[in-house]
Amino acid sequence: MKQPTYHILVCNSFRLNSDPQGVCNRKGAIDLLAALEEQITDRGLDAAISSTGCLKVCDRGPVMVIYPQNWWYGRVDEDAIETILDALEEGQCVEEMLIT
Predict the structure, then answer these.
(1) Which is it for strands 6-14 and 64-67: parallel, antiparallel or unpaired?
(2) Angle at 49 between CA 47 and CA 52, to 5 degrees
(3) 28 — alpha (psi -120 to 50), left (phi > 0) or beta?
(4) Residue among 82, 59, 79, 69 nearest 11 (CA)
(5) DSSP string covering the chain, please?
(6) Is 99 exposed, middle or buried (CB count within 10 Å of its CB: 0-12, 13-18, 19+)?
(7) pLDDT 10s per residue in the chain (100 long)?
(8) For the chain, does the N or the C end have fewer beta carbons within 10 angstroms?
(9) Is 11 within 8 Å of 63 (Cβ atoms)?
(10) CB neighbours of residue 64 within 10 Å
C-alpha cells in the first residue's frame, strides 16, 4: 500500500462512550470532512483524511492536524480549509492559524 504524502486529522470530539461532547463537533467539524475531501480531490493532493476523537484543545475548535508536518490548526472553517490547502500545495503552513 502506498502511503499518502499527507494525513489530515479532523477532531470530531467523540469520547470513549461515542458521544460527541466537545466544541469541534458542535461547531460543524463533521461538515468540514466533506469540504476537505472535495478540496483535496479537486486539487489532486495526495492526502488521507481521518475523523478523530477529542484532541483536547476544545477552546480552539474545530481543530485540524496535518501530518507528517505536525501542523495543528484551530478555529477551522471552510474558508480556513481553502487557505490551509493553498499553503500546503506550496509546502508551507499558515503561521497565523497554527495552534502554538
Answers:
(1) antiparallel
(2) 150
(3) left
(4) 59
(5) -PPPSEEEEEEEEE-TTS-B-SHHHHTTHHHHHHHHHHHHHHHT--EEEEEEE--S-GGG-S-EEEETTTEEE-S--HHHHHHHHHHHHTT---GGGB--
(6) middle
(7) 789 999 999 998 876 665 556 788 888 888 999 999 999 999 999 999 999 988 989 889 999 999 999 999 999 999 999 999 999 999 999 999 999 8
(8) N
(9) yes
(10) 28
Grid coordinates representing 71 are 501542523
Q: What is the pTM of this model?
A: 0.89
